[in-house]
Amino acid sequence: MVPRPTQKITERMSRITYKIAVMSGKGGVGKSTVSVNIAEALVQSGARVGILDVDIHGPNVPTMMGVEGARFVTREESDGEDTLTVIEPILAESGIRLASVGLIGYDHDSALIWRGPMKLGLIKQFLEDVEWGELDYLIIDTPPGTGDEVMTVCQYIPELSGSVIVTTPQAVSVLDARKSVDFARKAGVPVLGMVENMSDPADGPKLFGSGGGRTAASELEIAFLGTIPMDSDVVPAGDAGIPVVRRNPEGPAALAMHSLTNSMRLEIARRS
Fold first, then answer.
1. How much is the pTM?
2. Residue 147 forms part of a structural domain
């Protein structure tokens, strides 16, 4: 039986205008970096934003958002008939609301050896119990691939606004990104477009190549949202917990993040 959103999930998600899943076919392409910088760019435009990190085995969002070590606060509420658990999201410095397995207090040096049902149960709990409130955007940072966690997000969130597919220029990354596009289409999730991360700048050293994401987007007949050039500011910004669009807003990566975020918003508007 295909999981369906519960009434609690439907009620929570009804208060969020746009729900966007950021996906990648393989790890190491900078998907979480793109997620947190899209969120920061949206906040800088005046939007109310949350990030749901469902990468159970690699929850990097708390570190990248500068809240590593923070812990959820929960409380109990009664609706007159039942007692309900409410999880308060963690607030980042910029006001972004965060939920991640990295905020539940486990040892970061220990592996979470969880089978599928445990992971899916946690995602369901986040969707039901996190008190996001009124948001314009919820950015959902998914694990790489097309497995259980991504499927759960697509099945449980009603009216998912769309997906953003992240790749790097290499052929192996683009090949897996194409699979993510196929997955989204089969799951009935609109593909807002593809992003090419870690692209060689025109005037810089040739390391990863460039153009693979744009070519794939054209062949798949989806929007190409933009290219993010290799930029030495990105890694130290993420390690410091200050996304590059906030730490170095005039740098090439930050400008590219703003541009692709604007392209994503235009694509959403076009489909509305």
1. 0.94
2. yes
